[in-house]
Amino acid sequence: PVLHASSACRTWPSKNIYKMKWIFPVNKLKAIKTPFYYYDTEILTKTIDAIKAATAHHPNYHVHYAVKANANPKLLGIIRRAGFGADCVSGGEIQAALNAGFSPDGIVYAGVGKSDWEINLGLDNGISCFNVESVAELEVINDLAAAKHAVAKVAIRVNPNVGAHTHANITTGLAENKFGIALEDLLPTIRRIGSMESISLVGLHFHIGSQILDMSDFVALCLKINEIQDDIEKEGFSVENINVGGGLGIDYECPDSNPIPDFEAYFSTYADNLKLRDHDADELCFYSKATTD
Description:
By secondary structure, this protein is α/β, with parallel strands linked by helices. The chain has helices at 2-11, 15-23, 26-29, 41-55, 73-81, 91-99, 116-125, 135-147, 183-193, 215-234, 263-273, and strands at residues 61-66, 85-88, 107-109, 129-132, 152-159, 181-182, 199-205, 241-243, 283-288. The chain starts with a helix and ends in a 5-residue tail after the last strand. Helix 6 (91-99) runs parallel beside helix 7, helix 7 crosses helix 8 and helix 10 (215-234) runs parallel beside helix 11. The model is unreliable at 1-15 and 17-22 (pLDDT under 50). Helix 5 links the parallel strand 1 and strand 2 (85-88). An 8-stranded parallel barrel has the order 1-2-3-4-5-7-8-9, surrounded by 4 helices.
C-alpha cells in the first residue's frame, strides 16, 4: 500500500508545477540577479495556523522556530508575529532573531561548541535559556555570567538513549550519539550546578532525531522523560521546563497532498504520554522547522 500511494502521488501532475508555470511571475524576475530565493508565504502561514490550532488547548506548550532552517528577515517577522519563540544554534542566529523583533525571553540557545562571544551575546540580551551539552560548557557559562554579575538560566541536554525510525545519520538520542549528557551523568551534573553561583537550572532538553513520522518514537521519549523526572525527584531535584526538541518529519513522498505535517497527532502524543509535574506551572517547549514550500 505504501508503494502504491507513493506511486500515485508521483503519477499525478504536481500542483506546484502548475503554480510555477501559470502564477510564478517569471517575467518580473528576469532582471533580478542570482542568487535569488522565492518563498511561498501562503504555505508558511497555513503551517503556522495548523500549529496554533493544535496547541490551542495546551497553554503551557511553547513552540520555538528553529532559525537554522531559514533566517530570512521577512520570514522571521512572520513567525515572530505569530507568537512563536526562536531556537538558535549560533550567535548569528541570536542576533538575527533579535533584529527580527523576537523578545529575548523567547530565545533559546542550543548547540555544541558555543564560543565566548556567543554566550556573552546571550547573557547581555537576557535570553530565556542556554541548552548545555557538557559540564565544561556549564563551567564556561558560569564564569562568563559571574564576570557580568549575572545569572544564566540553563537546561541540561540529556541523551535519553531513545532511538528513532529515521535515517541513522540524523538520529541524535542514542547513547552512541555525541549529543547531550549521558543518563548516568545527569544527577552528578545537577549536583555540580548546585555549586555554581551564576547558573540557574530551569529545565531539561531532549532531541532524538529529525524527519520522524512514527509517533511511537515520541511516545518512547515521553516514557523515558517520565522515568528521568521520577529519578531526579527522588534525589530532591525538579525542573520547571521540559524541552522535547523537534523532529516531526514532512511527507517527501506526497508533498502536494500533505504539505503540512500532522501537528495534531504530534502534540496529542505528548499530551497523552508525558507527565508534567504541575500543569499550572511546568512548561513544555518544542521547536519546529516550519518553513516555506
